[in-house]
Amino acid sequence: MTIVNYDPRLVKTKNPYPKGPNDWKRFFSFNTDAKVIGIQYIVTALFFLLIGGLLGMLIRGELITPPSDLFDPTVYNGLYTMHGTIMLFLFLFPILSGLTNLLVPPMIGAPDMAFPKLNALAFWLVPVFSIILLLSFFVPGGPASSGWWSYPPISIQNPLGKIINGEMLWIIAISLSGISSIIGAVNFVTTIIRMRAPGMGFFKMPIFIWTVLAAQLLQLLGLPALTGGAIMLFFDLTFGTSFFRVEGGGDPVLFQHFFWFYSHPAVYVMVLPVFGIFSELFPVYSRKPLFGYKFVAIASFGITILSLVVWVHHMFYTGTPMWMRNLFMFTTMLIAVPTGVKVFAWIATLWGGNIRLSTPMLFCLGGLFNFIFGGITGVMLATVPVDIHVGNTYFVVAHFHYIIFNTIAFGIFAAIYHWFPKFTGKMFYEGLGKIHFTLTFIGATLNWLPLHWAGLLGMPRRVASYDPEFAIWNVLASIGAFILGVASIPFILNMVSSWVRGKSAPPNPWKAIGLEWLLPSPPPHENFEEDIPTVLNEPYCYGLDKPFVEDEKFYVEKSLKKH
Amino acid sequence: MVSKNQTLTLNHKPGHIKHDGHNMTGFIIFLCSESIIFFAFFVGYSVLKISAPVWYPSGINGIDVKMPLINTVILVSSSFVIYFAEKYLHKKNLWGFRIVWFITMIMGSYFVYGQYVEWSELTFSLQSGAFGGMFYLLTGFHGLHVITGILLMGLMLYRSFLPNNYKGGEMGVESVSLFWHFVDVIWLLLFGLIYLWQ
């Protein structure tokens, strides 16, 4: 009897591209190719960006006038809860998973993720939990309305006494999202640790890979705490336990610890890959090596470690003892050091560079500009006295939107444009891209810059009506929000029309250095197949006389031939 | 007979993916993540216990340690037994492996039975304040892991009867055994926290 010791993943039973690389049907099927999964994630997430954005516009519509005239305050609570939840769990996390799925295997020269089936499972949980979350609009009492933080005791009140209620569906959806993220994180970390191309030591990995590794480790360390908290919240809500009920000996603040132990690092889970994107794109579009490669790489891990010890800064006004406040103020401010290293490195990379202002670079520059602004307000908020003064005002809302939208989403758009030719095989329309950037930048600035003033003047967050003295800032913000809504039109037009009838993309349209650019566009199913290049240097040797991979010419010619 | 797998075409040279250690790496990473969730519950238990004015529900002074102690002994020894099962497999003694592996499963099942007996004799419930909730959450969540471990062991036992599976493919057995050690260590911490710290 002959025994064939084979790995099922190595056996290809049918052609992955039955109708050529652009066969759209495979994007609707259970496919284990990381590139297909990546695009599935990205398209799903962009769909939810539209839904979340629509909810955001409804919120801004309510706030355009001081009285609560558009919605009932309860409905308003549901709106901002679902806006936050959808934007974080159905847009930002999935889209970053999508980008990492697309980029990690080709960038490290791996054929696929370490566990392709688990990878597909992690994606297909997204539609499942998004449907559960959206169904909550139709249950009695409406969707969860205690904010995306779901703080008890508000979140464990069940006025209607129904077993199936919005809050319960919210908890189930969030727990499923957690499972999906943990599966994804295990997969990414294993892939990066074990499947790099020959010669690609840790200090030859692209910065994007460093940041993904750091972010996914953070997921693994932080997310279980939130899942634990969610399980306990679920028991309190459904089975009458008293983990967070004061009357039964529980402690509502304990939930906040569980919640923020993950949800603060979650910001870094989202922002670290975006730092990676900035670090990838600035060298390409300024034709210079990344300044201080090793420092930028190590800074990613500095951020990871520090971000695990800052969560209490969300709880300065919950009766936290003074020594704890001071300690966490200190650790929070310390994060500015590794972050500053990165910002310095980017600016030094741009300095004296031959800068090309194409759409991805515009989004990167916009994102960097906004990040510096959002970072400064972040340091302001880290100081205990300022935080106690403005912690529950629109200043915080403005600050985190500057990070979450104006930095992270800008970086995501930059990445989508930059790698669009690689993974679709088509060039996008530069003009439409520039219109998209201009509208987004104006809309985002107009939306959140004025809210800093509203917050400093004392406008409270989470309320549907406010004092007329804040009206001017809110009118500006609402106009900004509607401009942002309009900005999605050129984006969608651009993506759809260029994918359908755009110009074919060459393998390396930006003349970039990196393993993924040695592949044809779109890359074949298993990326490099047999011939994996041996990496000699880090992928930022622009203008330097050192080769990135061994026998680069061979791979370029090969990819052109395939193309 | 030639294995029918040979008729499938490999699209490139096998060994292109260095997949030998992926599963173990992934599994260890997963277990690290799992330990955080237990850690969160342990911290929750400690915080609630320290800050609670009244910890045990009225009429209860503490919990009986006898049954859990027997359970602890069983579970800890099963961790050694499973080690020998693995040893047999490495020595290619398939029947030795199956028998010792099955003994581990029985020991695990006895643990679950012991837990059931203990639960059915308790006079407080899930709703009995923070303690009641925490007690059932911790022991229940751990029990769920024990049951998962037993099911996984059953799966490995079933697989050991399939042809072609144990020629250098002990990865599943090693992972399950690692999981079992993990469950065991968690139980020791849990035992100390709930039963010894009263």
UniProtKB/TrEMBL annotation, chain A:
The keyword Flavoprotein does not apply. GO terms for biological process: aerobic respiration; electron transport coupled proton transport; respiratory electron transport chain. It is found in: Membrane. InterPro entries: Cyt_c_oxase-like_su1_dom (IPR023616), Cyt_c_oxase-like_su1_sf (IPR036927), Cyt_C_Oxase_1 (IPR000883), Cyt_c_Oxase_su1_BS (IPR023615). GO terms for cellular component: membrane. It comes from the Bacteria. PROSITE patterns: COX1, COX1_CUB. Residues 24-536 form the Cytochrome oxidase subunit I profile domain. The chain crosses the membrane at residues 36-59, 79-99, 120-139, 168-195, 207-235, 255-278, 290-312, 327-350, 362-382, 394-420, 432-451, 471-493. GO terms for molecular function: cytochrome-c oxidase activity; heme binding; oxidoreductase activity. Pfam families: COX1 (PF00115). Its EC number is 1.9.3.1. It is a multi-pass membrane protein. Belongs to the heme-copper respiratory oxidase family. Cytochrome c oxidase is the component of the respiratory chain that catalyzes the reduction of oxygen to water. Subunits 1-3 form the functional core of the enzyme complex. CO I is the catalytic subunit of the enzyme. Electrons originating in cytochrome c are transferred via the copper A center of subunit 2 and heme A of subunit 1 to the bimetallic center formed by heme A3 and copper B. This is Cytochrome c oxidase subunit I. It comes from Prochlorococcus marinus (strain MIT 9515).
Automatic annotation (TrEMBL), chain B:
Its main location: membrane. It holds the Pfam family COX3. One of its GO terms (molecular function) is oxidoreductase activity. It is a multi-pass membrane protein. This is Possible cytochrome c oxidase subunit III. The chain crosses the membrane at residues 27-48, 68-85, 94-113, 133-158, 178-197. SUPFAM superfamilies: Cytochrome c oxidase subunit III-like. The keyword Disulfide bond does not apply. One of its GO terms (biological process) is aerobic electron transport chain. Residues 26-198 form the Heme-copper oxidase subunit III family profile domain. Coiled coil: none annotated. It comes from the Bacteria. It is found in: Cell membrane. Its EC number is 1.9.3.1. Belongs to the cytochrome c oxidase subunit 3 family. The lineage of its organism: Bacteria, Bacillati, Cyanobacteriota, Cyanophyceae, Synechococcales. The keyword Oxidoreductase applies. CDD domains: Heme_Cu_Oxidase_III_like.
